[in-house]
Amino acid sequence: MSDRTPAGQFFDAAIGLLQRVRDEEAEAITAAGTLLADTVIAGGRLFAFGAGHSSLAAQDVVYRAGGLALMNLLAVPGTVGVDVVPATLGSALERVDGLATAVLDSSPVRSGDALIVISLSGRNALPVEMAMRARALGVRVIGVTSVAYAAKTTSRHVSGTFLKDHCDIVLDSKIAVGDAELTLDTVAAPFAPASTVVTSALLQAVLATTAATLAERGIEPPLLRSGNVDGGHEWNSRVFEQYGDRIFYRH
């Protein structure tokens, strides 16, 4: 029996989106996971960037139990979350030309690395320029975005292009323009966003592929264990020691 409560409808919508990305993005997920594994094997470093709520998915793959120790957060001050006051400043910074280039040029990112750029709309100057500049530096770029925005909105970058236009691999989250899954006659605006759920699942699927690919090639994946299980800290210390030159959140 279907649950028609708002909660039930949201779960149905989120599950439907997860099924779509599982089935429709399978090839891209495999390609992205393989790209990251290739980068690790070649001695490259891994970075993830997202602005605003897209940053939540980037943070979700950095320094966490069960995750790859080599994934680093590429942060742009003022855009990493809603902790900046006023919170609207983060949205304004996403539209500033030149900011991404300044951040990349002063970061440890270099040729041979891989960068995941997460932007739901993919239309703002910051993620578009981030992908463009990274590729100019010789960095492989994986974009995570909703491709639908490119068909239904206009770009805010001077080039008129979107994030999807500047990536080696694009992962389409399938999120509808506006990022709200529910409507009710009694509620004036659509509500209940699912982009965080879907984008985080996409990235975890990619990193699961990376770990399995490394193992298939005879390389122990540099995974972290929970510090709340016995032996977790000792395990992580060994990983940090082995890969310390590629882990920047401990410096």
TrEMBL record:
Residues 36-221 form the SIS domain. InterPro entries: RpiR-like_SIS, SIS_dom, SIS_dom_sf, SIS_GmhA/DiaA_subfam, UPF0309. PANTHER family: PHOSPHOHEPTOSE ISOMERASE, SEDOHEPTULOSE 7-PHOSPHATE ISOMERASE / DNAA INITIATOR-ASSOCIATING FACTOR FOR REPLICATION INITIATION. Belongs to the UPF0309 family. This is UPF0309 protein GCM10009549_28640. It comes from Streptomyces thermoalcalitolerans. The lineage of its organism: Bacteria, Bacillati, Actinomycetota, Actinomycetes, Kitasatosporales.
